[in-house]
Backbone:
């Protein structure tokens, strides 16, 4: 049985209506919808419209503020700290990235740490905002603790993604966007829905032992940092996740480590917060603060062409450039529609009923 | 048989004399020695005095300039590009980091890309320069192509390390410093010297197949990006290595990807360079450009204490904080001396003979 397919426009209209129903101003509802749907288009299904009802449940619990007063609380010529006022990360993050871009226009680079925010969708969207300004963009965020550092059985970090977007001239941009774990949580959700096992090295049991159960985190187990085990460098994945946590939350004044509030509304945030909400970190670097932009982009074309032309191992068609799979998926889904898992469809229908909207 | 042990002072005096013999001005010889020996102290033996004769061979080939005119060739309030004039990276990199720190003092953050440089020792040394200024420090560099991107049999990237140093209050600083491959090349060198096999996932054969031979790169094989294989996220390690390459070299105007000159003097640099020398990238962020430094550092103490106190898997004593092993090794070796592999000792003795210096 294949999943039902919806056009981008249908999903967009529905998400927009929902965001308006929970009280988002029209411009913010449009922005939140745009960010959310980019995940579906780019094939990162776990971060798209599948999360819509989750955002609504957080709003129900008054953990998401649909009319936030987002404001800069600290700044220098190249930096700022933004208080997201418990807004949707989908709205707070683009605002932060805009400020980073403005700072970069003025002094070459801009760096913005954000506190008091919520889940911001896909990191890649925000990093890519820099591209049209001939800037390199970076975005990272911390997230609910599901990941055990190397040697730990406790879950102290989120999947803490990093995105880096780099412009080229005639080639499409380089866009890396990845969780700092061996596998993103969304990949485990796919296995759960299909009743499949996970490879060894993605999750560990409550006691820290090996497991292939994609539901392991529901019984006290944990995701594993990129590297899978100590011998294969999981301490490096742990370093990456820790770096993202500290930049996103210790610099900004958000909650960090095990204090990050859970995304799911049925779990309460820790009663002893060390900061406000979740945290993000953004950067924008003007290319011509380093060298002429055209010169740089011509060399990026050369870099990309050379890597794309690399000789492959037998059975593999090509070496990918970061961003290739998502860009190709986006073109395909814009034309052919976006497949949704039946459970997601049920969830959206229920959401429609609640708000008296047809899905 | 245990390796012979030398005091820090003995190795330091010898390295200092050698750097002077090849014509480094006294202050630069002292700095190069300091950076080089920190690798030995911190237990990163592959990047320390074991490389001394390699630097000398590059100097012999006129690929290292011992009296470089290091200069800023482009800048903005928060950025600079530095031309290392073929100097030792051990000298060029600290100069770049000083500029990053000065920029951060003025506008909150400073970012310096470097071209026309050579191997810079351990990335962690340079990142840690920021700590005493209550700044976060970052350092990365590209390196000779030994790493095959996911699905590639060609070696297009170096082990391209990243270091991030973050100050705390009463706790020692957080210092992450790691190659973006599953295993650093130095770990393979150790296995080679001991005639041991490597775990699957560290290297691949010339055809891209699995291998346990630590000498695989000598017969056309390659190191593998962090993650080991596609299923365990090697494409993320590839993204990291690519990011380091682009920031270090495409931003600065150095050679990138397969055009990076080899560290070993017996291999000539590519005849069709795309830039000058190898490239580095450095960053410094003033903590109080985001929030008061004392407040931040107190939270870092809390972060570190919480992670250090995490419950461990059976058989493991503790969860490490990035920087713990190197700091402990450094204290031990400063007191008990630095063991050198007999092959390294032979190499240093030969170097001494060449320059009429006793080792």
Residues:
């Amino acid at each position: 049985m294949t999943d039902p397919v919806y056009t981008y426009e249908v999903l967009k209209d529905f998400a927009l209506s929902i965001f308006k129903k929970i009280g988002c101003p029209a411009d913010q509802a449009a922005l939140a919808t745009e960010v959310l749907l980019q995940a579906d288009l780019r094939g990162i299904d776990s971060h798209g419209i599948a999360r819509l009802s989750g955002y609504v449940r957080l709003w129900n619990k008054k953990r998401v503020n649909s009319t936030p007063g987002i404001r800069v609380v600290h700044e220098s010529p190249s930096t700022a700290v933004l208080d997201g006022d418990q807004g949707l990360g989908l709205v707070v993050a683009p605002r932060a990235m805009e400020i980073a871009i403005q700072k970069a226009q003025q002094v070459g680079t801009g760096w913005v740490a954000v506190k008091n925010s919520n889940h911001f969708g896909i990191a890649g969207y925000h990093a890519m905002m820099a591209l049209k300004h001939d800037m390199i963009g970076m975005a990272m965020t911390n997230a609910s603790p599901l990941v055990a550092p190397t040697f730990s059985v406790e879950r102290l970090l989120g999947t803490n993604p990093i995105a880096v977007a780099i412009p080229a001239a005639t080639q499409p941009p380089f866009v890396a966007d990845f969780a700092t774990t061996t596998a993103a949580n969304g990949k485990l959700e796919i296995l759960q829905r299909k009743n499949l096992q996970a490879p060894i090295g993605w999750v560990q049991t409550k006691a820290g032992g090996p497991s292939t159960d994609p539901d392991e985190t529901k019984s006290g187990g944990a995701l594993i940092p990129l590297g899978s085990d100590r011998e294969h460098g999981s301490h490096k994945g742990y370093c990456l996740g820790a770096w993202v946590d500290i930049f996103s939350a210790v610099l900004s004044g958000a909650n960090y480590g095990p204090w990050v509030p859970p995304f799911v509304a049925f779990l309460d945030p820790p009663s002893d917060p060390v900061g406000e909400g979740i945290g993000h970190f953004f950067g924008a670097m003007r290319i011509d603060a380093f060298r002429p932009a055209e010169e740089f982009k011509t060399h990026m074309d050369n870099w990309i062409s050379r890597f794309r032309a690399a000789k492959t191992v037998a059975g593999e068609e090509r070496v990918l450039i970061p961003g290739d799979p998502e860009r190709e998926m986006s073109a395909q889904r814009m034309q052919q529609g976006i497949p949704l898992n039946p459970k997601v469809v049920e969830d959206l229908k229920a959401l429609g009923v609640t708000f008296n909207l047809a899905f």
About this structure: Chain B has a mean pLDDT of 97. Chain B is about 35% helix and 15% strand. Chain B touches chain A through 87 residues (CB under 8 Å).
